[in-house]
């Protein structure tokens, strides 16, 4: 399997970070509405 190109890897990291912050925001809104 060839190594992943850096740009693709950077994109994957960005998506992961975005998903983390999205789930954090959802958790926060659930807590504040509770």
Summed up, the helix count is 1
Order of helices and strands: H
- Radius of gyration, in angstroms, nearest whole number: 15 Å
Number of strands: 0
Q: Which word captures the global form?
A: rod-shaped
Class based on secondary structure composition and strand pairing = mainly alpha
Residue share in helix: over 70%
| Gap from first CA to last CA | 48 Å
> pLDDT average, as an integer?
72
Q: Report the β-strand fraction as a percent range.
A: under 5%
Main pleated-sheet profile: none
Q: Provide the low-confidence segments as ranges.
A: none
Oligomer state equals: single chain
Short description:
Residues 1-10 have a biased composition (Basic residues). This protein has one helix at residues 6-33. The chain is mainly α and 34 residues long.
């Amino acid at each position: 399997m060839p190594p992943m190109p850096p740009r693709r890897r950077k994109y994957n990291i960005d998506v992961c970070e975005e998903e983390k912050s999205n789930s954090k925001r959802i958790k926060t809104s659930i807590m504040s509405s509770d």
